[in-house]
Amino acid sequence: MEYIAFKNLITIKNVDTLDLKNTLDCGQCFRWSENEDKSFTGVAFGRQITVRKNQNDLILENTNENDFLSFWAEYFDLNTDYKKITGEIAKIHPVLNDAIKKVSGIRILKQEPFEALITFIISQNNNIGRIKGIVSRLCECFGDKICDNVYTFPTAKKLSALSPDDLQPLRAGFRARYIIDAAQKVNNGEVDLEALRTMEFEQAEKELMKIIGVGKKVADCTLLFGLYRIEAFPLDVWMKRAMEKIFTDMTPKDFGEYAGIAQQYIFHYSRTNPDLFKDI
DNA sequence: ACCCAGGAAATTC
DNA sequence: GAATTTCATGGG
After folding, report:
1. Per-residue model confidence (pLDDT) at position A279
2. For residue A259, which of A84, A86, A233, A247 is within the disulfide window of CB 3.0 to 4.6 Å?
């Protein structure tokens, strides 16, 4: 990876396998918004940055070399060869090959584990627009202020001390008590998120499902997007539909060690092309 | 008014 | 145990 640090900018050269819109607006994260000039602004690790593409350069604004090397390079998974991976998974099924061509440049972000857990608890039986609204209010109410209208994601410790009534301003509905239970079990060590990085996969799912409001799907999303367990293959309504109508006779195991990346291509492709499911 | 949304708990059969 | 209902909220 070749990069240039200049003032508050980091420019990474030759990033031809990252599409910002397909990556940041594909339902894996909920704290990024697109600006009028096609750049994106978001918050992670307690910092707000703006990212943009200029040809094959990826430009990070409002950061520094230390933060870039400490976490942004990992967050955008810049040390992984996505060309090689997509080349491999494209061979699995012709429709997956189509998906990779049509919605190219999706990467799996390495989000913070607790944020992934809470945001995907909020995601259940919900739509992406409303998920973003609830997450935004969660940060505004209980995160730390970074600058005007910009807040960090709240800590498990902070949320663990609250009651569902305290979350009423979020308008999260029945999910409020799930958020509290997750925060409490993470805060008191009953669920050790960091341990899930190396734990055997099925065991890691079980650990997360100790939390009220976490079933297999939310557990798999937490593992995929928060702990970089890219063998995870979350099955939501869109994915189940795709498995029934398109990937007939296939199981998640058939998608291999990069199943999570395949899953995200299928999910995003399905959602942006709902006509795929018309009477096949 | 009705249906759906990156589901899971509670209830019923 | 497997199938169905309910849960809270907002957009289309």
Report:
1. 58
2. A233
